[in-house]
Amino acid sequence: MAGHEFTSIRSPRIKGVRRLAKRTFRQRERRFLAEGPQAVREALAATDGAGRPREGAAPGVVEVYATAEAMRRHIDLGDAARALGVPTHTVSLDVMSELAQTVTPQGIIAVCAFVDVPLEQVGDVRLVAVLSHVRDPGNAGTVLRTADAAGADAVVFTDASVDPYNGKCVRASAGSLFHLPVVVGVPVGRAVDFLRERGAAVWAADGGGPRDLHTAADGGDLDGPVGWVFGNEAWGLPEETVRLTDGAVSVPIYGGAESLNLATAAAVCLYTTARQQRRSRV
């Protein structure tokens, strides 16, 4: 669907879109920005005609803003948006600079409806990542991307964690935000209880944990449904959170490094679990 051409950063419409960079406005309108061709492509793939979500997919794209150069460079995205009936607006470089949240904009941004689902709507819980007290959006988005790659069934952002619709988090997820159920704003205790009700063991990833990951894997602790709780990179998980779980598990350090960063530790935990679960089904 053809849209308007915007050349002024003073346009009320452009100002309204730009406000979505702030969490307050995102929550009020339940919309966020997906910036860059990869994110827009994944968002469009989760959309049916008229901007509605495909059956079983995340909510869809509301509208697209792009420079003329970006639309020439990414013809497939323009064609996909038009085929879905998603309004696509051409903007000047100045307007794109106003909308973009990156130093070097890639020239295309989608306004998307929130994708999160209620915890109770999560189906299978073979492998779930729970982010508790994770404040860095880049780390959070990378964990989401890793969980998607490892075949996780859902990612839970607890009420003490960063907003998954933060621009940096959306970019770090590299489109994975649109691939699997994302739950937002639940207390960590509720998330743990939910996983246990679904028959999952719940482990806290903690660098100081008394049980190491390989011992847990060799002992069969990761063969069944598993929920992993990941905490803040700087100070880890509060003791009261660890006590909610079945125990703290650490990633063994064989070299001289003091520790692993959150996203790397999460990748090791999630992939080790995915491997063990696949082995146990053979």
How far apart the termini lie comes to 49 Å
Mean residue pLDDT: 89
Portion in strands: 15-25%
Shape: elongated
Per DSSP E runs of 2 or more residues, the count of β-strands stands at: 12
Succession of helices and strands: EHHEHEHHEHEEHEHEHEEHEHEH
Q: Largest sheet at a glance?
A: 7 strands, parallel
Helix amount, in percent? 25-40%
Strand arrangement across the biggest beta sheet: 8-7-6-11-9-12-10
Compute the CA-based radius of gyration: 20 Å
Structural class determined from secondary elements = alpha/beta
Number of helices: 12
Summarize the structure in words.
With about 280 residues, this protein is of the alpha/beta class. It is about 35% helix and about 20% strand. It has helices at about 10-20, 25-30, 35-45, 70-75, 75-85, 95-100, 135-150, 165-170, 190-195, 215-220, 240, 260-280; strands at about 1-5, 30-35, 60-65, 90, 110-115, 125-130, 155-160, 180-185, 200-205, 210, 225-230, 250. Helix 7 (about 135-150) links the parallel strand 6 (about 125-130) and strand 7 (about 155-160). Helix 3 (about 35-45) runs parallel beside helix 5 and helix 7 (about 135-150) runs parallel beside helix 12 (about 260-280). The longest helix is centred in the last third of the chain and has 20 residues, at about 260-280.
Summarize the structure.
The chain has 282 residues and is α/β, with parallel strands linked by helices.
Topology:
Blueprint: E1 2-6, H1 12-18, H2 23-29, E2 31-35, H3 37-45, E3 61-66, H4 68-73, H5 75-84, E4 88-91, H6 93-99, E5 108-113, E6 127-131, H7 137-149, E7 154-158, H8 167-172, E8 182-186, H9 188-197, E9 201-205, E10 211-212, H10 213-218, E11 226-230, H11 239-242, E12 248-250, H12 262-281
Parallel strand pairs: 1-4, 3-4, 6-7, 6-11, 7-8, 9-11, 9-12, 10-12
Antiparallel strand pairs: 2-5, 3-5
Helix pairs in contact: 3-5, 7-12
